[in-house]
User: Fold this.
Amino acid sequence: MLNAILANGKVIAATAVAMLMLGVGYAFGARKVDSLEAQIAAIKREGDDASAKLKKSQDEIAKALKDRDAQYAKQAEQLRAEAELKAKDLSAALAGANQRVASLQAKVSVVDARRAKLIADQEKASAAERQRLQEQIDALDREKRTLVAAVDANQCLALAVPEAVISPLVVRK
Amino acid sequence: MNRILAGLLPIAFSACTPMAVPVVKEALKCDAPASLLAACAEPGAIKPGITFGEMIEVSARDRDGFKACALRHKALAELVASCSDSIDKYNAEIREINARNAKQ
Assistant:
């Protein structure tokens, strides 16, 4: 009986000590805790705010990237379509060089014929009339020079670029 | 007795448990789309004996390649500037937060 009472007394004493320690621990741990907790809570709020700002900024960047990429894709497609069209036109223009040369040479022949007739007319004309015919001949000469230059330019397309000029640009493997 | 004390000690010191405060460490990412990171096309090859006509074709293709490259470069430069603005703005906000925290 006495032993049981003593045993219970030990448990009660141990519980009391433990409660005392709990109280002391709490009091020790709770020193200035309220203000510290408030500070920590404020810091946590700021941290959460910063996280939200990070997400917002990242979302803004993602949207800017997506929008600019879409805009670029549209512009690139437009550029590609224009380039394709121009390449076709250029190819056709280069392939049509011989035809243009023939057409220009036919015009040169017409000019030559007209000039020859004016020269013949000049021989029979009066001095004043001769002057007028000479002006027409001069105009035909100017027209012919233009036509011949155009013929030369078209014929030039099929000529090789002089080696001295092109060799600095040639990539040799 | 000792076992009871050992069991009660963690409860007694529970008031000392630290509170986790989040720290923002991540930096903003600005990954440009692959389409804008593509390399520019090489200039067309010029072979010995090339004609003036062929040279014009090579030049035309190079011009197209240059335009495409310039367009891509412009888009990429604008993106970098846009990202830089966003990062500057974000950093300014973070500096404000840090300044407020430092006062507390």
Observations:
- Helices of chain B lie at 2-12, 34-37, 52-103.
- Residues 51-104 of chain B form one domain.
